[in-house]
Specification:
By secondary structure, this protein is of the alpha/beta class. The protein has nine helices and eight strands.
């Protein structure tokens, strides 16, 4: 079970979180991508699964779910990450970040701009927002989207103008100091795996790259290869 609460960002946006207090000294913060929320079925499952080994926080970025504001496609969402991490810093000795898609890009941007994460896992991150392929017409893209259809979630998403200045993860990934795991899906139709590989190659921290064969995008890796995904991530975080 979790406690739902809201945290206020520096620009006065209230960010909703699910806080799973499981009695650990560490916390893993789940950072969904565009069009996904902390209450999406797959994220609820991931939070429960990883909650066996650590406390967990699931967050809604601005413009999603129970959070306020409008989504800016990584322009201002760094403030959301900072607010949640600052909240966690008061309670835990170790803070881990796991991001998916644009959430993964934000995890890397945060890591490059701050030294307050102990470990990072980036699942299907884009090295540059403007270079995202997003071939939504391919069955590999729209079929998983339909399989994850949640009308309540879809109605909660509030985007703003997409044309804003953004920090490119590829420009800051070499500033990350904490151990970072890069994960990609071989058949990703939204963010091709070369993005993740390029980020991994430029990173100078302790790092690892994992390619999931015959898998698609972001949270789909957990849905399609749950046991492997949990094993890879748990080994990186906890050495199990």
């Amino acid at each position: 079970m979790f406690i739902e609460t809201k945290i206020t960002t520096k620009d006065n946006v209230k960010i909703a979180i699910n806080h799973y207090r499981n009695g650990f000294d560490s916390v893993l913060i789940f950072m969904p991508g565009w069009f996904m929320t902390k209450d999406s079925n797959c994220f609820l499952q991931m939070c429960e699964t990883f909650g066996l080994a650590t406390d967990v926080i699931g967050m809604d970025f601005r413009g999603h779910g129970q959070s306020e504001g409008f989504y800016t496609f990584t322009t201002w969402e760094l403030l959301d990450v900072r607010a949640v991490v600052n909240y966690a810093k008061k309670l835990y000795s170790e803070i881990y970040l796991i991001g998916f898609s644009l959430g993964a890009s934000l995890a890397l941007i945060y890591g490059g701009k701050s030294n307050f994460a102990d470990k990072i896992i980036a699942v299907s991150p884009a090295c540059d927002f403007d270079k995202i392929e997003n071939h939504f017409w391919k069955k590999e893209a729209w079929l998983p989207t339909l399989q994850k259809a949640e009308m309540k979630r879809w109605l909660s998403v509030r985007p703003s103008a997409i044309i804003r200045r953004k920090i490119k993860p590829i420009d800051v990934v070499d500033k990350i100091k904490c151990p970072t795991l890069f994960i990609a899906g071989e058949n990703d139709p939204t963010v091709y795996p070369w993005h993740t590989e390029k980020l991994y190659q430029k990173a100078v921290c302790e790092k690892k790259y994992e390619l999931f064969k015959n898998c698609n995008h972001a949270e789909d890796l957990f849905i399609d290869e749950k046991d492997k995904f949990v094993e890879v991530c748990s080994s990186w975080l906890f050495g199990e």
